[in-house]
Amino acid sequence: MKIATHTETFTNPLYLESGRILEPYELKYETYGALNEDKSNVVVICHALTGSHHAAGQYEGERKAGWWDEMIGDGKSIDTEDFFVICVNVIGSCFGSTGPMSPKYPASDPYRMKFPVITISDMVKAQRILFDRLGIHKAHAVIGGSMGGMQALCFAIEHPNFASCHILLASTHATGPWAIAFNKVAREALIQDPAFKDGFYDPVEIKESGLSGLATGRMCGYISYLSPDSMDKKFGRNYVQTDGLYELFGKFEIERYLDYNGLNFVNWFDPLSFLYITKAINIFDATRNYDSLEDSLGRINSEITLISFSNDLLFLPREMEKIHQTMGNIGKENLSKYIEIESSYGHDAFLVEIDKFAHHVRDALKER
Amino acid sequence: MKIATHTETFTNPLYLESGRILEPYELKYETYGALNEDKSNVVVICHALTGSHHAAGQYEGERKAGWWDEMIGDGKSIDTEDFFVICVNVIGSCFGSTGPMSPKYPASDPYRMKFPVITISDMVKAQRILFDRLGIHKAHAVIGGSMGGMQALCFAIEHPNFASCHILLASTHATGPWAIAFNKVAREALIQDPAFKDGFYDPVEIKESGLSGLATGRMCGYISYLSPDSMDKKFGRNYVQTDGLYELFGKFEIERYLDYNGLNFVNWFDPLSFLYITKAINIFDATRNYDSLEDSLGRINSEITLISFSNDLLFLPREMEKIHQTMGNIGKENLSKYIEIESSYGHDAFLVEIDKFAHHVRDALKER
User: Fold this and answer.
1) Does residue B240 have a pLDDT over 80?
2) Looking at residue B242, what is its pLDDT?
3) pLDDT per residue over B274-286, tens digit each?
4) B173 is catalytic
5) Cα–Cα distance for residue pair A296/B200, rounded to 1 Å
6) Number of A:B CB contacts under 8 A?
7) Which of B122, B270, B285, B312 is an active site residue?
């Protein structure tokens, strides 16, 4: 599989939903496989909150492969012998595309809290502009899980002639109050941390001294990504073993897990990107700018495949089922397919239970 | 209904599970109705994490009645014309019983972080000692929801000859990693707040200047007490209306709700009590000190009624069902009754969906 990473710079303004503009801006993206002659084999992968353009492959010295490496590659479900796969780091993120810590032109100081509010539509719009520049005006498919699924739905509704099929996993048509509440706790924990300095933190310093608010916020996220079942299996009520003894009043393994992953988060993700992207997720509602879900889904004229996971407690299966039912209500049942995967892994299933859904993705890509 | 509030002081040491002692200690409790001549009409009510001895009735100037006022009173399900109802503030709490902010005898300074770790068994043991002093050696029933249900189960297992029936609502046989994870986030948010001062906060000052860590912690609790359904119904994706306009990028009603309840928490609950009681909940496991759940439940020789709520995401219905199944496995099915109530309210249902379960409590009290 041929992998390439690029950064594209745009000097024309990006007009955002908020009314504000980004100018200039950059998009970092990664491609897998080769574009065919008539450019008909493009598959766009959209990443989730803390994901990046690095969806597959493993670079030298890297500890782990890209976040969906099991899905994307030669002979895999998203087969790079057939498809030219492209994954773009969303604007607002911190892996190379323009985000809150990018310099606010013409100054070299970062935007920080002056970065504009970003929406899922903005993320998608920026990707469309990149694809146009690359001469890609049509895609075979757009695929994404969680926030990536929101982008895929947004492609289907707002850019209805762009892709032939859209595959959403563990996602929703509108972020519900339950998910907003989890984000609220996470955001509050971060914002209230004095080391966050109202957004004026030193990015190097926080890596050294830690940012407990971001850590706590991330822990809260983990609760929503997992499920009672997966936690029971993985941790149960096990205590952390110390000096050969279990301290009865000591730390639980689930607590150690949250500590480790919470504290480590600052080493690989930016606090302000976390704020801006959780905000974009909160704002997401496919009916915004439309009269109703019927109205917005009425714009879709290509296939959508909706894959939910039984134990997903962040975006409940019924939320994707509602998209499918609404497609039926407006006479578009032939364009919509809904699959609920039995899984104990919760929301994270779209990242870890590959075996359970990979063939559905493969099928959806083949049907067209 | 006759209501009385008392405080009892004990100078004999309370031997705790940790090996430490409390000496002296006080217990605050409230009673409703009248004790009959042969002292056979006692119903013990056990409160939850942030509850208190004030379970029913409304004092002059009080904004709200006691936390289970709909359940307890003349002619109500827990009928004070028949029963002498007693509710004790647990040790470790902050409503009058000895807790972390009580003076550490012989000094007048509070214990703070030197307060010993408390378990559910300790809370129950202290209540038993109080009842003994009151000449109450048998109760008709012990009833409790959430942490109150843990106490009821603990009464049934560790004091098997005390009560004739035990009613647990929205509770569990052992706190699972899912609930521990919620507590972890809440506890971290509090502990990391500099205004918590490692437990050396000024209780008056924090009421004035706020304690954002406790607020965030409480918000996290609220997520686990509610459910996607109840949040959908109550808040949906509604934005807070400002100046007659909805700010599209503004605050959601669910966020305002969490802000209000989070920030207000410091006005009526003590941060250290929050730490100690969540710890007691985390530690709770009916199999501790026993070989298995079969072994511990094998000690029960009176009725237990288990009432769970379909949407409870903190203590899942299957957790209480497991108690019932295990009672069956050990040939005690005649002592156990399991009822699952259909409710969209989540964990909080035991406080708000009274109409749906009150008759089950009434029936359970009558059967004996």
Assistant:
1) yes
2) 72
3) 999 999 999 999 9
4) no
5) 55
6) 140
7) B312
pLDDT tens for each residue of A230-254: 999 999 999 998 765 556 678 999 9
Contact across the interface for A258 and B232, Cβ inside 8 Å: no
ipTM for this model: 0.95
**Check: CATH 3.40.50.1820 for A3-176+285-367?**
yes
DSSP strands (E only) in chain A: 3-10, 14-15, 21-22, 25-32, 42-46, 72-73, 78-79, 84-88, 139-145, 163-169, 241-242, 245-246, 303-309, 336-341
B13 close to A (CB below 8 A)? no
Q: Do B185 and A189 touch (CB under 8 A)?
A: yes
| pLDDT band with cut points at 50, 70 and 90 for residue A198 | very high
Pick from A220, A279, A316: CB nearest B185:
A220
pLDDT at B368 over 60: no
> Do the Cβ atoms of B168 and B350 come closer than 8 Å?
no
Which residue in the block uniquely carries the two structure tokens 């970062």?
A110
Band (B250; pLDDT cuts 50, 70, 90): confident
Both structure tokens of A35: 């574009």
Paired tokens of A81: 């012998």
Residues of chain A numbered 161-200 and touching chain B (CB < 8 Å): 174-178, 180-182, 184-185, 188-189, 192-194
Q: Judging by DSSP bridges, how do beta strands B139-145 and B42-46 pair with one another?
A: parallel
Helices of type H across chain B: 120-133, 147-158, 177-191, 203-209, 212-225, 228-234, 253-264, 271-283, 293-297, 317-329, 349-352, 354-367
Q: What percent of chain B has pLDDT over 70?
A: 98
Banded model confidence at residue B247, pLDDT cuts 50, 70, 90: low
Nearest CA in chain B to A226: B178
- In tens, the pLDDT along B109-146 reads 999 999 999 999 999 999 999 999 999 999 999 999 99
Residue A306, SS3? Answer: strand
Task: Tell me where in chain A the CATH 1.10.1740.110 domain(s) lie.
Answer: 179-279
B285: DSSP letter: B
- The predicted pLDDT at position A368 comes to 56
- The contacts of residue B71 (CB under 8 Å, 6+ apart) are B56, B77, B78, B354, B358, B361
- Is the C-alpha dihedral spanning A97, A215, A353, A64 positive or negative? positive
Segment 307-346 of chain A within 8 Å of chain B by CB? 313, 316
Mean pLDDT for the stretch of residues A196-214: 97
How far, in Å, CA of B45 to CA of B52, rounded? Answer: 10
Chain B residues in contact with A177 by the CB 8 A cut-off are 228, 231-232, 234-237, 252-254
Residue range B179-279 forms a domain whose CATH class is mainly alpha
Total-model pTM: 0.96
Backbone angles phi, psi at B165, to 5 degrees: -145, 150
- Residues whose CB is less than 8 angstroms from the CB of residue A93 and which lie 6 or more positions away in sequence, other chains included: A52, A99, A273, A277
The minimum CA-CA distance between A231 and chain B, rounded to whole Å, is 6
Which pLDDT does position A279 carry in this prediction?
A: 96
Percentage of residues of chain A with pLDDT beyond 90: 96
- Best of B173, B184, B193 to disrupt the A interface (most A CBs within 10 Å) is B184
DSSP label at B366? H
Residues of chain B with CATH 3.40.50.1820: 3-176+285-367
Query: A252 touching B, CB under 8 A?
Result: yes
Tell me which amino acid residue A140 is. Answer: H
Which residue in the list B146, B230, B336, B344 is annotated as catalytic? B146
